[in-house]
């Protein structure tokens, strides 16, 4: 069993952890448009203008989604999207959560956010759960487009506004409010109210409208506080259920680890699932770690504990900064011989001869061994009439 745990190939092709190795950490927003999650969705079927990529942003409090179709992703287009779709419409956010893609982690975007006082939070490599709100927004868009497009897949750009409008005017179970009301303080007039008049459209009076809007806005702060408390309660309940399944897997500095293979070839099912080993440099927090090569070169970006596993030789001594001595040969096993000495007695049989007998065990070869014991007046309760000793020969096995 110890050999299997330390087999290099067995580790590289092993399955990942079934249980989560880290507690669930919730990410809440104290007020609308404080924290945004940004992600790239695509590629889609080619639309007119060679458009195939979608830049998506979602507010963590109101769940309001902004999306911009583009032909190709670039740093300048991401910068323009952040300025036009988020900052100019909803104000400066405090934080923006994104993955480690070049379009988000480039020097241009970093300097742009730093100049406006916006803090960037990057997810760990191969761990999109950190930006779970953006991933949920992606699912909403994809589900809506699939239902509306059917066979006309190339018209997804034209259908996108309708999908977002339907989402913005639908109450969410976590808040019991629509994103439109949480964002703007009042409900939008939807198409259903044109064909089937509602109380608002039927009894609308110009004189009382201003008073009703003012009263509605006065209540908005209480509504948002109730939504914040409700969402916090739901997330705490989910975290409690999730954390029951957690099997902690804490890594320490200098541990040798394997990480999930990056840039896997989708068509090649024989690609190893893990690569390395790497050395843990430090723990960043909340299950994120900085890694380095065995030569001491730091690996950019962080890795989550869910994408790491201890290497079988993690306890072996590192001789210097350039190499690690692995003391186990996975292809050869040297034979080991062990000798045991047995004195005067086997079970209840009395051995008259005081000389000891040696039994030899070979761990790699199996061959018969004949051992001779000398007995005198009897074995167990049986007595021999002949006083001369009798030799009993016993066959054993060398293992």
Proportion of helical residues: 25-40%
The profile of the biggest β sheet is: 5 strands, mixed
Q: Extract low-pLDDT stretches.
A: 314-399
Q: What's the level 1 CATH class of the largest domain?
A: Alpha Beta
Q: Quick one: CATH superfamily of the largest domain?
A: Ribonuclease H-like superfamily/Ribonuclease H
Order of helices and strands: HHEEEHEHHEHHHHHHEEEEEEEEEEE
Count of alpha/pi helices: 11
The fraction of residues assigned to DSSP E strands is: 15-25%
Structural summary, described in words:
There is one protein chain. The protein is α+β, with helices and mostly antiparallel strands and 399 residues long. The chain has three domains: 35-242, Nucleotidyltransferase, domain 5 (2-Layer Sandwich), CATH 3.30.420.10; 249-321, SH3 type barrels, CATH 2.30.30; 337-398, no CATH class. Helices cover 31% and strands 22% of the residues. The strands form five sheets. Strands 3-2-1-4-5 form a five-stranded mixed beta sheet, with helices on both faces. Strands 9-8-7-6-10 form a five-stranded antiparallel beta sheet, with no helix packed on it. Helix 6 (132-149) crosses helix 7.
Detail the topology: elements first, then pairings:
Elements: H1 2-6, H2 8-12, E1 35-41, E2 53-59, E3 65-70, H3 75-90, E4 95-98, H4 102-105, H5 107-115, E5 119-122, H6 132-149, H7 156-168, H8 179-184, H9 192-195, H10 199-202, H11 206-243, E6 256-260, E7 274-285, E8 288-292, E9 303-304, E10 308-310, E11 337-342, E12 357-362, E13 367-375, E14 378-379, E15 382-383, E16 390-398
